[in-house]
Amino acid sequence: MQSAVLLALAQGGRMERGRRRSEAEEAERGRMKRTIIKDWKTRLSYFLQNSSNSTKMKSKKAGKQRTYFRPSPEEAQLWSEAFDELLANKYGLAAFRAFLKSEFCEENIEFWLACEDFKKTKSPQKLTSKAKKIYNDFIEKEAPKEINIDFQTKNMIAQNIQEATHTCFSAAQKRVYSLMENNSYPRFLESEFYQELCKKTPITREAQGT
Length: 210
Description:
Shape: flat
Number of strands: 2
Number of helices: 10
Strand order of the largest sheet: 1-2
Helix content: over 70%
């Protein structure tokens, strides 16, 4: 009888510890989710504040002025039609980068952009130096922004950059593009971050009366 009581007490103690551990884990998951959502909202607020009005930026070369506008909800909705639509829009690209940062995978878009810049390089000297920098930043083992590509592709790049050409990173760039298009892009479209951009601003009575 006494052993049965002791056994029941021991089991009860284990169940209580398990319940507390489960509650602690659930609280931690909730805290992380709130942190991510808060980060999204902070970044979104930054974009809205800096893009709600036209912003004039002076060109350093020619002294010209460029005006950037926050895209309308209709324009933001176009980003859902194709991944290229998103990447072609400066505001959309900035929003997508912020989203990737919140998911801790911004190295993918940074690598893709570095490759786009690399392909536009005309000077052979600059091509070689840029190739080495991209390799050091994104490709080599334990690089600070190492991207997820297979060992064979890494070896091929290591050989190609010895005599750099504009196609050095083509295979890796296609791989990363496909990864973003099939994984990160759909999550971006479903995120609260993107949905806020697609919301239409209510028309106030003052605006209607003007």
